[in-house]
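ARCHIVE CARD
Drawer: 12
Card no.: 0347
Subject: one protein chain, sequence and derived structure
Cross-reference: see card 0346
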Amino acid sequence: MHSASREITGFRMPRDAGPGPVGRVRDWLDERGKAAWIVAMILGFIAFWPIGLAILAYMIWSKRMFGCSKRSHHHHRRYHSTPTGNTAFDTYREETLKRLEDEHSEFMDFLQKLREAKDKAEFDQFMEQRDTKSEQ
């Protein structure tokens, strides 16, 4: 798994939590769906309200609150393909699904690069305008 990151003036910020404890908890909750996230948030509020608030903020930020996460969609597609008994068709279907998932991943990476380029262009324009105002 590659991790996307943003670089701002030499400082790299990880986009996703890695294989550490936070990443394992996130993956575990993703496998169980939105209900598990909601239960974790409620338990967080019960244990210590800032934890629940942090989980709620993360759910909204990562779009887990209003839809399924990308990971759970990915897992559901792969695990719901049950064998039909026709090995040629099953092989074709698996290869096609793998190709489509790879294309989807490449497209999402492309979109991320476009967003980053747009962000950089907007930031460069802001800095240019700021420099112009400071010179006047």
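Annotation on reverse: The first strand starts at residue 5 and ends at 8. Residues 51 and 128 are 40 Å apart (CA to CA).
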